[in-house]
Structures are given as C-alpha cells and as structure tokens.
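Suppose a colleague, Dr. K., hands you the sequence of a protein chain of 115 amino acids and asks what its three-dimensional shape might be. Before reaching for any lab equipment, you can write down a predicted structure in token form. Begin with the sequence itself:
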Amino acid sequence: MKKSILIGLMVALTPLVTFADTKLSSTTTVKRIFTYKTAAVVELGTAMTKNSGCTYAKSGKYVALRFSEAGSKEMYSALLSAKISKQKVKIGTRDCDNIWSGDGTMNKIYRVTLQ
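The predicted structure, expressed as tokens, is then:
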C-alpha cells in the first residue's frame, strides 16, 4: 500500500519538476571527443537544438561535459564506448557551459542514452 502511494505521488509530481532549458537530441553518432583536464567536448553526427542562452555558433553540434558534475565520468565512459563501437546515442542537455574559452557557451550534457 505504501509503495503504491509513493509511486502515485512520484507520478503526480513529475510534471512539476522542470528545468530552465532542457533538450534531447535525435538518435545520433559521436563523431569526435575532445578531452581536457576538467571537461570534454563532444561533436555529434547530427546537430541538436541549441539551448537558449548558448552563445557558441555551433552549440548543438558540439556539446560540453564537465567532469565535476555528478555522473559525468559514467556519461564520458558511455560516450567513449559509443564512439569506439559506432553505437548511436541520444544526448540530453541542460543549460550552457563554457569549455572553449573565447568561443562562447555550448549545450551542457546531463544525460547519455546508448541506443
């Protein structure tokens, strides 16, 4: 009984949780990965919609992954294995991040799904 109430509450409250600017790519490939000390930039085979506020002209084609974010190492691992195996992915982005200083901000990854 408690379990069904908890599940019901989770389902009922889920629409109330939103993020400022969240996007999900179509199924795409990982074309290239640029790895740095504190972050990575991923070039997607197919550009996704640019998050509002992102200033890099090719944001959506290039997406950022900051290693200090929770789950980033696992997402990086998934991206590497998708690149090596040529497996398709879906990328979820939220907000913007500035990895390539001087070039502007790009979509920031919060989710990677192997297809």
